[in-house]
Design brief:
mainly alpha, 151 residues
Length: 151
């Protein structure tokens, strides 16, 4: 694994994690409570309280998603923040449509309103993370091009 990809993956992981945490804290937490799919008691059985979250598993899922985004952006050939936003949004639209609407179709985890709000927040976080990944991946290319023009 090249250093550029590793650094891009780590920065994308952190960006995606922070954006999703921000979306949850600012929008989703209250929205889920005001648009429940099931009773409050049943929801408590489904979700762990913050003091019972499993840290290593949260870490694994965050790193996996960050490197998934970075890999998709690398394969797209995007090397600027703007091109990363473009390709990141395509990946996000498709990926989160599959996850969110699959969960909505097969479970009682989402209400109809919350599935769309969660979908929008997830797309936004992944799109911006795609921009960060492309920017980081393109930094090496830009440095090489600038060195070539100087000589």
């Amino acid at each position: 694994m090249k250093k550029t990809f590793l650094v891009a993956g780590i920065l994308t992981t952190v960006t995606n994690l922070l954006l999703n945490a921000l979306a949850y804290a600012v929008i989703l937490k209250d929205f889920y409570q005001s648009h429940p799919a099931v009773s409050e008691e049943f929801m408590k059985q489904l979700q762990r309280p913050p003091d019972q979250l499993i840290g290593w598993a949260m870490g694994v899922t965050s790193v996996a998603m960050g490197f998934f985004i970075t890999l998709m952006i690398k394969w797209s050939g995007a090397t600027t923040f703007t091109s990363g936003l473009k390709y990141g949004s395509i990946v996000a639209l498709l990926f989160w449509a599959s996850v969110n609407f699959g969960l909505y179709a097969l479970s009682n985890f989402f209400s109809q309103a919350s599935v769309f709000v969660d979908y929008a927040c997830s797309i936004a976080a992944m799109t911006i993370s795609g921009g960060v990944a492309a920017w980081m991946l393109g930094r090496r290319n830009n440095k090489q091009q600038n060195a070539t023009h100087v000589e």
